[in-house]
Structures are given as C-alpha cells and as structure tokens.
TrEMBL record, chain A:
<dbReference type="InterPro" id="IPR014917">
    <property type="entry name" value="DUF1800"/>
</dbReference>
<dbReference type="Pfam" id="PF08811">
    <property type="entry name" value="DUF1800"/>
</dbReference>
<protein>
    <submittedName>
        <fullName>Uncharacterized protein (DUF1800 family)</fullName>
    </submittedName>
</protein>
From TrEMBL, chain B:
<feature type="signal peptide">
    <location>
        <begin position="1"/>
        <end position="27"/>
    </location>
</feature>
<protein>
    <submittedName>
        <fullName>Uncharacterized protein (DUF1501 family)</fullName>
    </submittedName>
</protein>
<dbReference type="Pfam" id="PF07394">
    <property type="entry name" value="DUF1501"/>
</dbReference>
<feature type="region of interest" description="Disordered">
    <location>
        <begin position="228"/>
        <end position="249"/>
    </location>
</feature>
<dbReference type="InterPro" id="IPR006311">
    <property type="entry name" value="TAT_signal"/>
</dbReference>
<dbReference type="InterPro" id="IPR010869">
    <property type="entry name" value="DUF1501"/>
</dbReference>
<keyword id="KW-0732">Signal</keyword>
Length: 433, 405
C-alpha cells in the first residue's frame, strides 16, 4: 500500500476525519511518528473549547408544584442540549483528535444516557473521567468507573444496598464492560452486586459517597475467588481476568479496525500488548492486520458528520440555532446522538447503519454541510478546472478514490460545487472507511 | 434503562449483536416488499401478524382498569380511575377513557384482552425486559427475536418480516436471517443520486451495500408518494391538539400502520410486521401523558383494524412490563411486572382472557403473572402464522388460542 494511502487509513480511523493538510503533514512525518503523535500529542489542546459551566438547578421539595417540576425538567433538558452541542463542537475543533475519539469510544463502551441520568454536569463529568483515566491501565480505569456518578445512576447503583441488592451495574460491568457473555455466571453477578453495595449519589453536587452501613461486608465468592470483596477489589478482579485481556482488544478492533473479527494471530499480538489502553492502541494501529481493514467499517453517524464538518471548515458553535437543531435532528434520524446511546449496549454498527432510511437523513445533513462549507473550501473546488473537481473533492474529503460509477455522478455535478460536496458526502466511498 | 423510545432499541451489545443483524437485509425497500405481491406464492388466506410494541412499560392497571376493586383505588388514589370514568367492559373491568375505539371493538368481538401476562422472575429493567419479550427467553435472552426465529423456519426471506423503523428491532433478528427495515419518512428531493447505486466492480461488500440504498431510493420515493397521494385526507388530522411529549411523533404509529395496510391490501408476501410507539415510561405526572399516548394507540390501531375487517390480519399489542400497583410519590408508577396484551382482528375470540392478578397478593409490591407471555406467542404462531410454536419457542408447550376455533 502506498504510504499516503496507509496514513490516510490510519487518520480516518484514529481521528474524526482528517483534512487533506493533516494527511500531508502526517505523510511528511511518517507512519510511526504519526502514531506516536496521535497517542502523545504535545502541549495542551488550545483549539478545544472548554466545557460549559451550568447553573445549579434548584432542589425541589416533595411538595413542589407541577409547574416547578416542569420548569426544572426543562432546565435539565436545556443543559443536556447545551452539552451535546458543546461536545459536537469540541469533536470538530479539537486538535488532539485521537484523545477526543477515545472519549467517544468510551462513551459507546460505558454507554450511559442522559435520558435517564438527566444531569448534564454528571454526563460531562463522566466524559472528563474518560479523558483523564481512559488511556492508562484498564483495571485502574475500571475502578474509577464504578464510582462514576452518571454510570451509577444509569445502572441503579445508588439503589444497591445490603438490604436491597440491585444487580444492574454488576451484571453490565461483567457482560458489557469487561468480560463478555459466557465468562461469568449468574452467581458471580449476585456476588458482584453485593461487592458494589453502599454507594449513593448526590446529584446536585455530582459526587458519589460510600455509606458503610449500606455496604455488604460479608464474604463473597466471585469468579472462583472468595473474600470480603469491596467495589475496588471486585473491579480489579474482573478487569484482570484472562477474559478481559481479550475482550477490550476486541472492542477496540470492532470500532477502530473492522466489523469482521480479527484473526487469532492479531488477537494474540494485541493480548500481548497488555491492558494499558495506549499500548493496545499502538499495537492495533501498527499491527500488519490493521492495514487490511480498509473498507470494513461503516462510519458511525457522529464520525461521518464530525469528519465532514472538519473537512469543510464548519464549526457547530458558529451555526445558527436553527442549523444546530438540524444537525442534532439529522443525527437523531441516523440513530446516533451523543449522550443518548440507545441502551447500555451502546450503538449498533456495520450494516445496521446502512438503511434507505438513514440514507435520507444523510442526504439532508449533507445538504446542510455543503451549504455551510467555508468559503476557502468552496474556492479551492472552484479553482480546479471542472473536469478535475471530482479529484479535488476526493482530496478534500480524504477519499482514496472514486469508483467509475461515483466519478460519473460527480462529473455531472461538477459545475455546482455545493451539489458536488453533497454528493461526495453521501457517496458509498465516503460512507464506508 | 429508562426512557427508551421507539427505535432506540437494538440488539444489546455491538459485539455480540452485529452478526445477527449483518445477516439481515436492512436495505430492502417498500418497493421490494410490494413486488412480492406479484409473485403469487403467498398461500391463500394466509394470516398476517402485526406486533405493536409500546416502549417504556405501559401501566397496565390504568389501561385495563379493575375499577371495582377497592384495593386499586386505595393503592393509587391520585391517579386511579373511578367507575364513572372508565369505559366499562363488565362489572369489574373497564378501559382507560382514551380507548374509545377499543371499547367498540370489544363489543364487536374484535378485541381480546389477555390479563396478567408476564414471565417468571420478572426483570424490571426496560432493556432486559424488552430483550426478554422480544427474544421470548426469560432466562437468558440471546440475540434472536421470536419472529426472527420464525423467519428462520419460514425460509429466511427478509420480506416475510418487515419493520417500518430506521433500525431493525431484535424481534425480527433470526439466527440465520433477519427481517427488513423499511423507511416511512420518505421525502422528495433526492433526485439525481440514483447513479450512486450502480454496482462497482471489486468494491468492499459494505460499500456495495451502501450503494444499494441509492438504487432503491428513487423507487421508494415514487412508491410512497403514490401511496400518500392515494390516501383520503383525514379531516381530523390537523386539529392542533398535538401533545408536546417529545417521546415519539404523534403520527408515527398511524403512519406505520397505514403502510402495513397498504402492503396487506396489495397482497404482499410479508406475514409479520413490527411497529412501535415509545414514550410510556411515565414515572411522574402519569395520568395525562398516558391518556395522550393511549389515544394515539386507540386511534391508529382501531383505524387499522377497521380497515382490515374481514381479512385474516391479527394485531397484538404489548409492552415490556406493567407498573407497580402502588403509585409513587410523584403521581406516577415505577417499573412493575405483569400487564395486559391486546389481540385484535376479525375472527378471533374476543372478550376478557386470563385471570386478573390479585391486587393484594403481591410479589414485593408487584402483580403475580397469571399467563406466560409465551402462551400468547404460541397461539399467534400456531393460529396466525401456521407454525409449530415449540420449534420457535425453544420447546415451550403452553398455548393460548385466541383465533380459530
């Protein structure tokens, strides 16, 4: 594979969508240096907007009026909307793209929805935890996550007490976050739930408190080990299981490399990389098997939209309110709105995104993006001779090449740069990567 | 997990679920479905099943109301309906006032109300309970839905099992096949993109799949526009009484059922349809919101059943669980267990079925189920889809027959 194609592939997967200039720079730096820069960007990310600060919502007493409750609910919804808008803008603006993309990856992994958590500050707090702890040792990260207030509320952890155990968090911790189905038994769920008892959440302060009298201090047998497990010991135990060593690489592979399962050789190499997340990412991006995964992932709707906005010079923060609503509503039509995963299992992938229904939503969003493309981007397309515009578009959108079919459609529209962009964005070559 | 809305529900884990979905043809169009009408391979008088999923856990006690039971009034004084409010079915049971069409269908023998439907060891998580209902496995819900497994046994053609939702519900995902997800919200304006749907030599399979969506787009547009234009205008459609619930479009269930009706009238091969409405997760200030939602169900389903009168079409309406008997502190109810299943259509045994669970002999505040939901599925599989239920339901032997003799 030519170097440029190899590097473009890397950047398409490790970022939300590279610009042509980013590919140029990476090509000059070389593949391995680019991987290192993605993993260890220098300096702080000056481009990334700071998180919004939210006004406290008044605590309502038991006798609060319906109107007061409705008002508080409306404030909460409004704050979540602001948080979603902010995050989309940050995904576009951030220079440390892999950092940002990993936050999104973890959001799909520990899939927590604002629809139940309802508190934007808690959702942003969880994203911050992803940012700060999601790149090192996975067991340490897991230990942080089981005391994340948003995750606890999402999975009813605050209702899990020695008197009234709630298995929700313990089950999903093993099933979806660390081990996978088949690597634990129902008895482990029950015992694990006991280990996780005792946490309460102060929604207003956004803090988690451990209340000793709500905790089950008895001995538990989990995954064949018997001890008076507490939450940290339980988290450490599951995250260091042999099954976990294969589970996380599989999830990373599935989102960054291919919808097809990796070969045993690749899996062996990734397991060999250990459980430090950055080590795993480096191993994945430099694995010989990674090169062969081009065309094996459907861009997730958020990846598709954010990448398009990056390449077209569109900042969500500078859109009108109406356009921003169109953006989120378009993502909703594609079934992927940040902070609103459909379930604790996260978003679907692959062919599930490829329906005629989602194509229509893509067409509408692409129209919005094409209409909002920055003037220099349009100028560059216009500067190319009409016959060369499909190639100029391929460079702009970092598509390796068009099939004859698509090239013909693009050539027919080459006289209208905005239409050309819309067609490029919805093309099969751009939808898949 | 709270507040699951319609179509916000897919096979649980991206890792384990993708295989089943990948097997399905999500790129089928209405045109493909309608084309099957011409093949003529649908058995004469073959039944059609329409499954209506109400996401969010509809409060069954305020839907089919045991109004004469003092314990009902005592448990939820602020949100209970009294004898004067309900639409009476008999001396102890009445329907929610929003279900006027259902009451008429009941008197006409076209509505069967199955009470106390649930499963052992009820799970109060929306996510898992809906998994259980859709997979029909209360012990360990896997990644195949009960209609998906039926599809496997029926030959696996995706056009036999259709959903009008953007993503395919697990209900229609089989082990070796999956139903088709066909869009309803078609609009004009995508002209000129058909060329992107031509096959290209050597392109990756997913890219080919993405291209195929284009190939279908123009034909769906023409088809659905034609269908819409042929519809008589509903004079009540723009009364301006849309509730701002934000939990699912008002017209969506009606629009989905309109398309089902079109397909049935055209004689398509499809035997099972999945449609849904979200927004039933009403933990607070429940009464008004639930009435609004039930009115949508009533209007859409009643119109559909009337339109399908005389045809072998059976509708089944369910939700992932009912609610607790006792109201909570915020004029709502929390997640519960057993609830009602409505079965509607011509030629069924209308009336009340199943035993109303006791409101005093409770399981930790929740109703004890009296009818296993698999009994209901078994009846639908045998009587509507003419299939051996045991094969689809993992050897389940119970059966509640509501249709046929």
């Amino acid at each position: 594979m030519p170097d440029r194609a190899r590097i473009a592939h890397l950047l398409r997967r490790a970022t939300f969508g590279p610009t042509a200039e980013e590919v140029d720079a990476a090509e000059r730096a070389g593949y391995d240096v680019t991987v290192s820069q993605l993993l260890r960007p220098t300096g702080s990310d000056s481009g990334a907007p700071k998180p919004p600060v939210f006004a406290a919502i008044a605590e309502l007493g038991k006798n609060a009026s319906r109107a007061d409750k409705q008002k508080a609910n409306q404030q909460r919804r409004q704050q979540v909307t602001v948080a979603i808008d902010w995050w989309l803008d940050r995904m576009v603006a951030a220079e440390h793209q892999l950092t940002e993309k990993m936050v999104f990856f973890w959001h799909g992994h520990w899939a927590t929805s604002a629809q139940k958590v309802k508190a934007a500050p808690l959702m942003l707090g969880q994203l911050q935890t992803f940012r700060e702890h999601g790149r090192g040792d996975f067991a340490a990260f897991t230990t942080r996550m089981i005391r994340d207030p948003a995750l606890i509320i999402w999975l009813d952890g605050q209702k899990n007490t020695v008197k009234a155990p709630n298995e929700n968090l313990a089950r999903e911790l093993m099933e979806l976050f660390t081990l996978g189905i088949g690597n634990y038994a129902e008895a482990d769920v029950k015992a694990g739930a006991r280990a996780l008892t005792g946490f309460t959440v102060d929604r207003r302060a956004g803090t988690v408190k451990f209340v000793a009298r709500r905790h089950d201090r008895g001995a538990k047998t989990i995954l064949g080990h018997t001890a008076a497990f507490d939450a940290d010991q339980f988290a450490e135990l599951v995250a260091t299981q042999p099954a976990a060593a294969g589970f996380l690489p599989q999830r990373l592979w599935f989102r960054f490399a291919s919808g097809e399962p990796m070969t045993d050789e690749v899996l062996g190499r990734l397991i060999g990389a250990g459980r430090d997340v950055d080590d795993l990412l480096r191993a994945l991006f430099t694995d010989p098997g990674f090169d062969d995964t081009r065309g094996q992932l459907v861009k997730q709707p958020v990846e598709w939209a954010v990448g398009a906005m990056r390449q077209l010079g569109i900042r969500p923060a500078r859109l009108t309110d109406q356009q921003r609503k169109q953006l989120v509503s378009g993502l909703n039509g594609l079934d992927q709105v940040p902070l609103r995963p459909p379930s604790v299992g996260g978003w679907p992938a692959g062919a599930a995104w490829l329906t005629t229904s989602s194509l229509q939503a893509r067409l509408r969003l692409a129209e919005l993006f094409a209409g909002g493309a920055a003037a220099p981007v349009l100028d560059r397309l216009r500067a190319a001779p009409t016959a060369g515009r499909p190639d100029a578009l391929a460079r702009l959108l970092v598509v390796d090449g068009w099939t004859d079919r698509t090239r013909k459609v693009l050539a027919d529209a080459a006289g209208k740069p905005e239409r050309l962009i819309q067609l490029g964005l919805v093309s099969p070559e751009y939808t898949i990567h | 997990m709270d507040m699951l809305t319609r179509r916000k529900f897919l096979v649980a884990s991206g890792v384990v679920g993708a295989g089943a979905l990948a097997a399905g043809a999500t790129a089928y169009t209405l045109a493909d479905i309608l084309d099957t009408a011409e093949s003529g391979d649908r058995p004469r008088d073959a039944g059609t099943l329409v499954v209506v999923t109400l996401y969010g856990g509809n409060d069954g006690l305020n839907t089919v109301v045991p109004y004469a039971d003092a314990s009902y009034q005592d448990a939820r004084p602020d949100i209970a309906y009294d004898a004067g409010e309900v639409l009476r079915l008999d001396d102890s049971t009445g329907l929610n006032p929003a279900l006027k069409g259902f009451q008429r269908l009941f008197t006409e023998g076209r509505l069967a109300v199955v009470r106390g439907v649930g499963y052992p060891k009820p799970d109060r998580s929306h996510f898992r309970s809906m998994d259980i209902w859709q997979t029909a496995d209360p012990v360990r819900p896997g990644t195949t839905g009960w209609l998906g497994r039926w599809l496997d046994t029926a030959g696996g053609d995706p056009r036999l099992a259709v959903s009008f939702e953007p993503a395919l519900p697990p209900l229609l995902a089989g082990a070796t096949s999956a139903g088709a997800a066909v869009p309803t919200n078609v609009r004009r304006g995508a002209k000129g993109v058909t060329g992107l749907g031509l096959p290209a030599a050597g392109e990756p399979p997913l890219q080919a799949r993405a291209a195929r969506c284009f190939a279908d787009l123009d034909s769906i547009e023409a088809m659905i526009t034609g269908v819409r234009d042929a519809q008589p205008t509903d004079p009540d459609a723009d009364e301006g009484d849309d509730p701002a619930t934000g939990t699912g479009g008002r017209a969506e269930l009606g629009a989905q059922l309109d398309l089902v009706a079109q397909c049935v009238e055209a004689g398509v091969a499809t035997r099972a349809f999945s449609v849904s409405l979200g927004g039933f997760d009403t933990h607070a200030d429940e009464k008004q919101l639930q009435e609004i939602l039930l009115a949508q169900v009533d209007k859409a389903v009643t119109a559909f059943v009337d339109r399908m009168a005389g045809r072998p079409v059976t509708v089944a309406v369910y939700s992932e669980f009912g609610r607790r008997v006792r109201a909570n502190a915020s004029d709502g109810t929390d997640h519960g267990t057993a609830s009602n299943v409505f079965v509607l259509g011509s030629g069924l045994r209308g009336g009340l079925h199943g035993e109303q669970p006791s409101l005093t002999d409770l399981d930790d505040g929740d109703l004890k189920y009296t009818v296993d939901f698999r009994d209901v599925y078994a009846g639908l599989l045998a009587d509507v889809l003419a299939t051996d239920p045991e094969q689809v339901l993992g050897g389940w032997k119970g059966k509640l027959s509501l249709t046929g003799s």
